Structures are given as C-alpha cells and as structure tokens.
Amino acid sequence: MSPHAPSAAGRSIAGCPAAAMTRRGWMAGAAAAGLGALCPSSAVLAAPRPLPSVRDVPRRWRIGYAESMPYGNYAATLAAILGELERMGWTGALTGMPYRPGQTDTAALWSWLAAHAGSPVLDFVADAHTTNLTAEGAAALTERLRDGRGIDLMIVMGTVAGVALATDAHRVPVLAFSSTNPIAAGIVASETDTGRDHVWAHLDPRRFQRQLAIFHKTFRFRRLGIAYDDSPTGRAIASLPDIEAMAERIGFELVRRHVRAPIDHLDQYRYEVDLTAAWEALSREAEAVYITYGRWPLDRFTTLARPFLKQRIPTFSQLGPEEVERGALMSIARADMAGIGHFGAATLARVMAGEPLRHLPQVYFDTPSIAWNAATAAAIGYRIPFPALLAADSLHGVL
C-alpha cells in the first residue's frame, strides 16, 4: 500500500456529509469491521454496589506510590484519581496541588499530598514514593511491605512496577494502573478474578486491538512492522498477544525486530543504537509500523523516528498523542482522564471500606480520542480525509 493516495477507508469516509461526521461516527467508520466485537459487555463493566462513603471506613489508611518511570500518563492518572477523591469528600481541598497537564513528575505532587491532603481517612506517606523502580528498589519495597512498615495500600503505575509488586511476598493491597496488558504480564489472572486477594489492576482488554483495527482500516497494510524486547516482560509491555491476534484475525503479516530493553541509564545509549537499527530495517521492509511502548525519552522520539519519514511509512503510536506530537502519524488515547479517575477512586473507596479486592471490577474503557500529525502526513504523502480531521481531538503539525 502506498501512502500517497487515500485508503479505501478514507474514500468511503469522504462520501459522508461532513456536518454529520462526529468523532464517534468516524471511529465507527474507520473500524466498522471489528470494534463492536472488541468491546467488553456492559455486564463486565457494571459496578456491583453503590459507592461507600468516607463514614464507612473504620480506620486510617497509609498510602504508598510506585511507578515504572516518570511518565505523563502516570501523573495524569494519579491526579485524576486524587481529583475524584476530593470530589467524593475523601480528601480535603486540593487547591494548589502541583499538577499541570503533560507533566511527568509525581515526586513533587506526592510530597505536596503528604503535607496538604487533609484527608479524614488517608495518609499519603511522604517517604513511600518510588519512581524508576529497579529490581533492587522493588526488592527493598517488597521487604518494607512484608514487614508492615507504615504502608497499608500501594498505588502502582506501569507494567514493570506492577509485575514487581504483584507478588505473594507481601499482603499489602496493590492497585495497578496504566499497565499495557496486566493479564499477559501476570499481574492479574483474568478480567473477573485477579488471582490474588491483595492485587487488582485496571484492564482495558481490547484497547490495542481497537487501535490496530483502526490503523488497518485506514491503511490496509499487508506487512506491519513492530519492534519489541523479546522477553516475557517485553512481550507483555508491547501487548504482543493482542498484536498477533489481530494479525491473524485481519490477515496481515508481522515484520519483527527485537531490541533488548536498557538495563539502566548507562545502557541507554546501546539501546537507542539498537532501536535505530531496528527502525531503519522496518522502514525498508514494512508497509506500516506500529510503534510499541519503549524506553526512549520523549524528547528523543522525533530523531529516532526519522527513518519512517524518510521512507514515507505510516506510523501508529501505541503510547498515544505524546508521540504523535513528536512525529508519529496517528494514535488513539483517552479523551480525558475523568472516567479513569472516578473508576480508580471508586476502587480505592471500596477497598478501604472493606470490600474484598479480588473480585472488584477491573475493566474500564471510555470513548477514545483521535490524534493526527498533519506535518507527518504531508511528509509521507498521505492526505488525511477531511471528516477525520473534523473528528480529531488533537491535531499536531510541527515536527
């Protein structure tokens, strides 16, 4: 497939009246062949009971936080949960909380919470914040949890941190958010049973299948390039089972390159050299590339992704608009954080009110947003259909 001409999907969309085209309508048109079957049923999503109130909590809870690395989605998810807890009356006023959309830092936010949250039932423990969680750091944190040293519940962000702390080595409740595929990673056992009494994870089990359905409907590629770390954790972070399932379902070939994740910051240069070689190869061998989660800093993405521009290869960022802003052609992400904020805060409330964690609802998804990079589209010779532009939530145009 050449990106020079609009795809079959683009041509069919262009025939619709622009005034009637909404974001949801474009999404349906772009992925009509599979999205309905990829969405969980309402029975899976329904909450079983009314939310408890703060008066239902018999004791104070000391809360800790751990994340795989600094990342904007982690900070945004945490801020959304906190905002909903404030609205529910589970914290005092959070006016002045040091969070701005797009920031990656959670350490200053956590320090502020420890000093100012004013909750009747929550203590945000000042020395219980961990970022860039390493194997050594995870071992030390697990030891602290096992010994019961001042932490009653952990909020965890990211697959690496979730895998490290979803263990039987301690019994402290762990609520894991922003993991790529918690089931494939072994954080939880299934959508309806976490597998452990003290572990829970937010699931959107069809998220990446929806992404690939839309990407394929737009470009009709026959050979899709992917690069990932070929280890159990690396395959889970890339959500490889979802990619393989969609390749079989739709009927396209996967062109694979393996890039070992960096061990630490000293290994970052080797990682980026290997990644560059892998992306150079994919730019020559694939018709489109699905850029899976990686360990590059966002400010390096534009430079690293230049082979795809040079070879005029359409790209879809698994991560989201952050990489579209920096040169990926398109992505789909959460339209806003309010929904996941409510879902996470509700789960915290249920746990602290004494509801068993193991069978609490884990599945939540909301209407995705659409992001395009117009400059990237021009560089690869692809004309974004006008109704798709109207339906986009974010449009970027500077590389």
UniProtKB/TrEMBL annotation:
<feature type="signal peptide">
    <location>
        <begin position="1"/>
        <end position="46"/>
    </location>
</feature>
<dbReference type="InterPro" id="IPR007487">
    <property type="entry name" value="ABC_transpt-TYRBP-like"/>
</dbReference>
<dbReference type="Pfam" id="PF04392">
    <property type="entry name" value="ABC_sub_bind"/>
</dbReference>
<dbReference type="InterPro" id="IPR006311">
    <property type="entry name" value="TAT_signal"/>
</dbReference>
<keyword id="KW-0732">Signal</keyword>
<keyword id="KW-0614">Plasmid</keyword>
<protein>
    <recommendedName>
        <fullName>ABC transporter substrate-binding protein</fullName>
    </recommendedName>
</protein>
